[in-house]
Design goal:
By secondary structure, chain A is α+β, with helices and mostly antiparallel strands. Chain A contains five helices and five strands. In chain A, a hairpin with a 2-residue loop joins β1 and β2. Among the domains of chain B are: 150 residues, 2-Layer Sandwich (Aldehyde Oxidoreductase, domain 4); 188 residues, Aldehyde Oxidoreductase, domain 4, CATH 3.30.365.10. The longest helix of chain B is centred in the C-terminal third of the chain and has 27 residues. The chains are: A alpha+beta (162), B alpha+beta (737).
């Protein structure tokens, strides 16, 4: 067993867990925060996306012990205009991928603000390029929505960013 | 509806109302089946078979049992005895809900690669998973038939039934084909498709004595409850199934697959609450998929493009332990006024988990073959593919001359062509180029027949003006609760915000399953009927108390009662039997009288990389005749969702099955590719909004029609872009090079 101290949604949390427990299982099973979803447990769907010091990560691929003393933000700790925008633009249907889409979008907006390019950026060295719909789609492609609410997600993100 | 009470306000039916569960789903508050915390909760994991057919000769559970935190390892040696599933009976529709006929952990027989052979229960999920990996199973392998392609010569013609007709005949299509001046005759094939709802199937089960409560990811609470009662030998009244939120279904959660049975079994064996959350790989191996298919479409026509012969035959697979024919030839029975028609459906039997419904069973894959063939004929004739379709648009149902309840395919094509700019298309393949991209456009027809189930509903109007609609309907992402609240609000003349819909619980009046695009219309009919009853009651009260013309809340308050209530249908045994008899009688009557379906026209633009064969879908317009639309926002989303899944079917989705072992080789979202954000352009949706006169409020179900025809529209656009005709899905770059 390993003793881990975490900061989750602004609160100090202590856990005594085997070292192989993923951050996702720690959140869902040990910390009573099931808002973060498990879709594949292998980093392929993005449903488990959370923010670690503001950076988006797949919680299923993260070992809890590696995130000691990092600031973790889950959907339960998110208060962002994107949430209402998702409802207005119908950026979800069943809602199971939604926590991950929203956390991912928040992390993505920060990446873009920091000048991080994507595979579709015209000039990877340029700063302050507009976040086009194509850029949003590319940068959000780690988050699968099987209901197919992609258009609504892009509209919601675009509305918040512009 | 005429009423004495005050209903003057704008209707909300048809308006783009936000989903009522939006806040719960965007804040993480919505609780799905694996997210209910119970005192003493344990976690289960499955061990699945690695042979397609055989007998278990030994199971060594000692290492698993020795692992700290393990509560129990259940196998066929120590699992509680279960009643076997019932054979499917038309008298009791809930018998259809069993995914397979196998009595899991009550037998040493293995019927498919992936059948669960043990369940580990532990204090935490990581311990359960680790222990499951330590269970050693040995098998005696028996000869297994697993190769779909090799088995095709042994296909047997299916009979079909009223709800699932599998073939039809008009005139002599083969003779007409032989005599036709223009013929296209091709084979098409589609692979095995998996639902891949992002929420893997999950169950949280708890027994209190002989009372069972099950939180399950299900599209079908009522039938599941009946099935669990049967399997575990308790009265139905002792079983409660809860599913307030379900993380997508697409047919995959319509039946009772091993997971839910084994979670309940493990809870009974251990005396502890059990949560079983399938791994993504478990979902591939223990939940049925869409069968692969091979299809022949042969069209004969005159030089004028009038069809003289239409032949569509299909072979799909089922299993010795369940499954059903996938009615791929349905669209061919209804879409074209050919003079002679022959359609037929056959099956091969493979040692596989039974096939199951995946969004638009039959129609999704059948429309790929038929709508590709029509495009081939148009090219052969040098005709515009829309014009060719309109030349063969029938006045009545082609195979039997029944009336259409409603059909506006012609108008859908006109609307879509205008929005898409079809007139600017170059009909000659390979002639439009944009840098390294070959650009092409294609069309195809969408078509999905309609059925309606019965649903029990109560509607309560309280003195504070609030309205509660209670029905065991399923919120799997379709916006069901939102739409029923809109319907009740208009029917009673109360504000939308005053209506609350209670759903997702088998303790509520029995609703309808969420499948076959049936739930919304089925429940809507009952909500309307209940609201009508309530309105009559309100009118009586108003007359008695002299409050005519006042608001419903004022009328109830003046009557000095806390609320008034109206019910439609009954959950008693007799009430349910009567409901089923009503369903059968109405379905039989409807099917005699008219052919009823949602339809539409897909317009697609693709860009194909001339060097790599990569296909990008760059533009889409879908124009639909889906009757009257209840909610502009959620309806557009549903139709788009079908198109997104269809794009996956066209370009990437395919389970790779080892033809020697029968094992799925890519049981993951990194091996089985579903569309992601970057694959999906803005999808333009238009609809005619003309009511179907035979449906409640004129609505037609929209959950499935969107996916039908999509793969053909893509394939037709690829032909227009490249001149290459691809008849085998998915259309991967390798096939285009």
């Amino acid at each position: 067993m390993a003793e881990v101290r975490l900061r989750v949604n602004g609160a100090d949390r202590r856990l005594d867990i085997p070292p192989q427990v993923s951050l996702l299982d720690a959140l869902r099973e040990h910390l009573g925060l099931p808002g973060t979803k498990k879709g594949c447990d292998q980093g392929a769907c993005g449903a488990c996306t959370v923010l670690a010091d503001g950076e988006r990560i797949n919680a299923c691929l993260a070992l809890t012990v590696q995130y000691a003393d990092r600031e973790i933000t889950t959907i339960e700790g998110v208060d962002h205009p994107l949430q209402e925008a998702f409802v207005r633009h119908d950026g979800f249907q069943c809602g199971y991928c939604t926590s991950g889409q929203i956390c991912s979008a928040i992390g993505m907006l920060a990446e873009h603000k920091d000048g991080m390019p994507s595979a579709v950026s015209e000039d990877p060295a340029a700063e302050g390029e507009e976040l086009t719909d194509e850029e949003i789609r590319e940068r959000m492609s780690g988050n699968i929505c099987r209901c197919g609410a992609y258009n609504g997600v892009v509209e919601a993100v675009a509305e918040v960013v512009r | 509806m005429t009423s004495t009470h005050n209903t003057t306000r704008e209707p909300v039916v048809g308006a783009p109302v936000d989903r009522v569960d939006g806040p719960a789903k965007t804040t993480g508050a919505a609780r799905f089946a694996a997210e209910h915390d119970l005192a003493g909760l344990t976690h289960a994991a499955l061990v699945t078979a690695t042979v397609s057919r055989g007998r278990i000769t030994g199971i060594d559970t000692s290492a698993a049992e020795a692992l700290p935190g393990v509560v129990a390892v259940l196998t066929h040696h120590n699992a509680p005895k279960l009643n076997p599933p019932k054979r499917v009976s038309p008298v009791n529709m809930s018998t259809m809900v069993s995914g397979t006929q196998v009595n899991y952990l009550n037998t040493d027989e293995v019927h498919w690669d992936g059948q669960p052979v043990a369940v580990v229960v532990a204090e935490h999920s990581h311990a359960a998973r680790e222990a499951a990996a330590l269970v050693e199973v040995t098998y005696e392998r028996l000869p297994a038939t697993v190769d779909f392609a090799a088995e095709l010569p042994n296909a047997v013609l299916d009979k079909g039934n009223m709800l699932m007709p599998t073939g039809a005949k008009k005139g002599d299509a083969d003779a007409a084909l032989a005599a036709a001046p223009v013929v296209v005759d091709s084979e098409y094939s589609t692979p095995q498709h998996h639902h891949n709802a992002i929420e893997p199937h999950a169950t949280t089960a708890v027994w209190h004595g002989d009372e069972l409560a099950v939180h399950d990811a299900t599209q079908n609470m009522a039938w599941l409850r009946a099935h669990l009662a049967l399997r575990f030998g308790v009265p139905e009244a002792k079983v409660r199934v809860l599913a307030p939120f379900v993380g997508g279904g697409f047919g995959g959660k319509g039946f009772a697959w091993p997971g839910v049975i084994l979670a309940v079994l493990a809870a009974r064996a251990t005396g502890r609450p059990v949560r079983l959350s399938l791994t993504r790989e478990d979902v591939y191996r223990t939940v049925g998929a869409r069968t692969p298919s091979t299809q022949r479409v042969a069209l004969g026509a005159g030089r004028d493009g009038k069809l003289t012969a239409l032949v569509h035959t299909a072979v799909t697979r089922k299993s010795p332990v369940g499954g059903q024919p996938e009615p791929a030839v349905t669209p061919a029975n209804h879409l074209y006024g050919a003079a002679n028609i022959r359609t037929g459906q056959s099956s091969v039997t493979l040692d596989w988990i039974p096939n199951t419904a995946v969004r638009a069973p039959g129609d999704a894959i059948g429309s790929f073959a038929l709508e590709s063939a029509i495009d081939e004929l148009a090219y052969e004739l040098g005709a515009d593919p829309i014009e060719l379709r309109m030349r063969n648009e029938p006045e009545r149902n082609p195979i039997d001359g029944k009336k259409f309840s409603h059909r506006m395919l012609r108008e859908a094509y006109e609307l879509g062509a205008h929005r898409f700019g079809w007139a600017d298309r170059s009909p000659e393949p390979g002639t439009t180029r944009d840098g390294r991209w070959l650009v092409g456009t294609g069309v195809a027809t969408a078509y999905h027949p309609q059925l309606r189930l019965t649903a029990n509903v109560t509607v309560r109007l309280a003195a504070d003006g609030s309205v509660t609609v209670r029905s065991g309907l399923h919120e799997i992402g379709v916006g069901a609760a939102t739409v029923q609240a809109q319907i009740a609000a208009d029917a009673l003349g109360v504000p939308f915000d005053a209506v609350h819909v209670e759903c997702g619980d088998s303790a509520l009046p029995e609703g309808a399953m969420a499948g076959g695009s049936m739930q919304t219309s089925s429940v809507a009919a009952s909500v309307l009927a209940a609201c009508r009853k309530l309105t009559r009651r309100l009118d009586t009260l108003a007359r008695r108390s002299g409050t005519a013309g006042r608001t419903p809340a004022e009328i109830v308050a003046a009557a000095k009662v806390p609320y008034i209530e109206a019910a439609v249908g009954s959950d008693t045994r007799i009430g349910k039997a009567a409901g089923q008899a009503r369903f059968m009688a109405r379905t039989a009557r409807d099917m005699r009288r008219w052919q009823k379906a949602a339809c539409g026209a897909h317009f697609c633009e693709v860009r194909v990389d001339a060097d790599t064969g990569e296909v990008r879908v760059s533009r889409w317009t879908g124009a639909f005749d889906v009757g009257r639309v209840m909610n502009r926002k959620t309806a557009v989303s549903q139709l788009r969702g079908g198109i997104v899944m269809g794009i996956g079917m066209a370009l990437t989705e395919e389970a790779h099955v080892d033809p020697r072992s029968g094992r799925i080789m890519n049981p993951s979202l990194s091996g089985y590719h579903v569309p992601v954000h970057a694959d999906i352009p803005p999808i333009d949706i238009a609809y005619l909004d003309e009511p179907d006169p035979t449906m409640p409020l004129g609505l037609l179900g929209i959950g499935e029609v969107g996916i039908t025809g999509v793969a053909a529209a893509v394939a037709n656009a690829i032909h227009n872009a490249t001149g290459k005709r691809l008849r085998d899905l998915p259309i991967t770059p390798a096939k285009l090079l």
